[in-house]
Amino acid sequence: MPTQPMKMRMIKEALRYNLELGHSLERCARALNISKGVVAKYVALAKAAALDWAQIAAMTEVDLQARLQQVKPKASQSAVQLATAQVCNGSNGNSSSNARDATLCDGPIPTSGPFVQPDYAQMHRELSRKGMTLMLLWQEHQANHLLERTHQYSQYCENYRRWAKTLKRSMRQIHKAGEKLFVDFAGPTIGLTDGSRAHIFVSSMGASGYTFALATGAEKTADWIEGMVGSLHYMGCVCALIVPDNPRAVIAVPDRYEPRVNDSVLDFARHYGLSVLPARPICPQDKAKAESAVQVVERWIMARLRRTSFASVDEVNQAIAPLLADLNARPFQKLPGSRLSVFAQVDAPAMQALPQQRYEMATFKTVRVHIDYHVQVDRHYYSVPHLLIGQSLDARITKHCVELLHRGQRVAAHERSDRVGGFTTVQAHMPAAHLAHRDWTPQRLIDWGLSIGVATGGLIQKSLAQFKHPEQAYRSSLGLLSLSKRYGKDRLEVACALALSLGSCKYQHVKDILVSGRDQIKPTVTEPWISPSHDHIRGAGYYQ
């Protein structure tokens, strides 16, 4: 079976991950559930077309597809392969410095006296900053103690690693500032008075451990997105990566090696300009920060609320808020500062600003445009431009709006309606012939019939009344009125009166009367029959 062509929306998302967010090809491939070679191919094509992300973001999917296809005939096979190889090898024109490239300051080096020990806790914190290395910290340490005895680079690194082993295992990981937000749900729940349970969503920044907790009604897709949106707005800025585990509410393809998030989570990530990279299944070390944060929230927040009764999830969140602030302000045991202070110093400066609008939960559905240029969403019908009849569209459905997308471009937007079987139609979407038909109303047809005669108007009114929707009688009423062009208004009026006397209001019956000429037959007047007197008639007295 041939492979289905990749949607341009997925290609554009892969280019955003690599060109705007700076993710590696392997990370892009894992996040989007596509091969690394495909990502490298389209990144190479974009570079061959001299496109950066600012230009790609302003393009529609149709324009981007045309631009990338123009590169193929111009570039030879070897040129594209060379560009792809450069992308796969990480060749971007910047060379990283090695330890042997470092230069020491000039001057005599002391050979006696005690060694000056660095501040290992500060070293550990500095390594969280983007681009920071042990080599750079060692050079700064050497420069700050020129006249004192210091360790060489190898012993300097060995001493730091020995000190790092005294920390908790989860703290030995080096996280870049502002890069990863680890998220998960706590195992225990909080009981409510109505018998339901409040589930606790927990998130933690990788570098600072800045923690957020939120009570939700369940652990569905909407609850995961609500928790992640709440985390970002609680911090007041946006990280580069969100790392969940592999729940079915978040992951559309729960594959061990190439998981793919669902469309709603992907839409959330696109709104905030970040990416979602699921951890490997049954590998808690991939999200050790989330595991540690869940444990801390269970001890310092949920344990304190164990004797409190709550009637709703909102009441739980009101109780969590002050405890959460106290948790983030609590000093570390072995490191300087607190989660709040380290977040303000390390994570927050490296993170992006929040968008102007808060994300609203959206679901996606593939719909087909019917012959009446409407699509069905939750048993309600919404119009699209009539030229798209027969096309498949993507419906983006939020609480208040329904957006219809054709190849990634919005073609219609409607306010969401809960009226089952109803129609929401924009006049601009209708063909010219349908616009003319839209001007017809039941009263207009009745008035037209009354202009011919009372019987004609009455028959049309009776025809419209017998249907639940008057529009269903428009065609037969127009056909009835058109009979006046062939048979004349007088004959039509007589035929309608005859049909009403027979109890019929159908177009075909009136037409049959006119064709047969029954309207032209004058009715015969018969006198009432009176029984003659007769000898054999007994009369009423006979039965007394």
Structure write-up:
There is one protein chain. This protein is an alpha+beta fold and 544 residues long. 42% of the residues lie in helices and 12% in strands. It has 20 helices and 15 strands. The chain has helices at 8-20, 25-32, 36-48, 53-58, 61-74, 77-88, 120-126, 134-144, 153-164, 221-235, 263-272, 288-302, 313-329, 339-347, 432-438, 442-452, 454-465, 474-487, 489-501, 507-516, and strands at 180-185, 190-191, 197-205, 211-216, 241-243, 251-253, 260-261, 275-276, 363-368, 374-377, 380-383, 392-397, 401-406, 409-415, 423-424. Strand 3 (197-205) and strand 4 form a beta hairpin. Residues 73-109 have low confidence and may be disordered.
The poorly predicted ranges are 73-109
The structural domain count equals 5
End-to-end distance = 99 Å
Strand content: 5-15%
Q: Structural class, from secondary structure content?
A: alpha+beta
CATH architecture of the largest domain: 2-Layer Sandwich
Shape: elongated
Mean pLDDT: 80
